From TrEMBL:
It comes from the Bacteria. The keyword Oxidoreductase applies. Belongs to the short-chain dehydrogenases/reductases (SDR) family. One of its GO terms (molecular function) is 3-oxoacyl-[acyl-carrier-protein] reductase (NADPH) activity. InterPro entries: NAD(P)-bd_dom_sf (IPR036291), Sc_DH/Rdtase_CS (IPR020904), SDR_fam (IPR002347). The lineage of its organism: Bacteria, Pseudomonadati, Bacteroidota, Cytophagia, Cytophagales. Keywords: Oxidoreductase. PANTHER family: DEHYDROGENASES, SHORT CHAIN (PTHR24321), ESTRADIOL 17-BETA-DEHYDROGENASE 8-RELATED (PTHR24321:SF8). The keyword Oxidoreductase applies. The gene is fabG. Its EC number is 1.1.1.100. Pfam families: adh_short_C2. This is 3-oxoacyl-ACP reductase FabG.
Amino acid sequence: MKRFKDKVIVITGGASGIGKSAVSRFLRDGATVVIWDVNEAQGQDTLSEVRSNGSIADFMKVNTTNPEEVEQATLATIQKFGQIDVLINNAGITRDATIKKITYNEWQQVIDVNLTGVFNCTRSVIPQMIDKGYGRIINTSSVVGLYGNFGQVNYAATKSGVIGMTKTLAKELGKHNITVNAVAPGFIATEMVKTIPEKVINLMIDKTPLKRLGTPEDVANTYAFLASDEAAFISGAVISVDGAVTI
Ligand code: NAD
C-alpha cells in the first residue's frame, strides 16, 4: 500500500542506523524521502542502496546544528519537491562520560546536535506547514530521556529536553493541524551495538521483558505510524519502543 505517495518526508540522520531504516520504510510506502545528514559519503551510499524503480529519494548534506544550512536545505527541498509534509528529527549523537569526567566540549556537542538541531529543523520547516494547514513532526527521544542513564548526563538532558519541546510544540501548533510526537527507543541493534561486548548485550536483553534488542525497523515502523493518517488525533505523545524495558 502506497500510503505516503503524496507526501514529502525529511529524515535527519537518514544516512545510517534507525534513520536509514526509516528511509527504506517510507520509500516502500511511496513517499518522496529527503535525507538531511552531515555524512555525505554515507548518505550517498544509503541513497544508492535504498533507491528502487520509481522511488524518489534525495540526499542533502546538512549539519543540523547550523541554522543557515538548515534554512538552505528547507528551501532546496521545497523548491525541488514542492513541500515538506513530515519532518523526522532523528539525527543524534552520544559523547558518554560521567559528571566527574565529562568535558565541556562533550556536553556542548550533544546539546548542539540532539537539542539545537531539533530546534533548528523544526523552526525552519514550520512556516510552510502552517501555510498548508498540515504537518507531522516526529522527534527522537530515548528511554534515557525518561529514566536517565549512568554516564549520559548530556544525552539524557537532551533526550528529556526533546520531550519538553514535543509537548510544547504540540500545544502551539495543534491549531494548524500539525501534530508533534516523540518516539523513545530502548536498546536498538544498530551498527553501534557491534562495538558493545557480548556480555553487556546479554545483560540488556535480560533486562528487556520481550527478551531481545529492538531493531531499527521497530522504530521506523513507529515513525511511519505517527506520520500516517491513522495517527491524526495523536499529538504531544511519547511512544516508547523498548520491549517494555522501562515499565
Ligand atoms: P546513528 O549514529 O546510526 O545515526 C545517526 C545519524 O545522524 C548519522 O547518519 C549521522 O551522520 C547523523 N548526524 C549526526 N550528527 C548530525 C548533524 N549535526 N547533522 C546532520 N546529521 C547528523 O544513530 P542511531 O542509533 O540510528 O540513532 C538515531 C536516533 O535514535 C538518535 O537520535 C539516537 O539518539 C536515537 N536513539 C538510538 C538508540 C539506539 O539504541 N540506537 C536508542 C535510543 C535513541
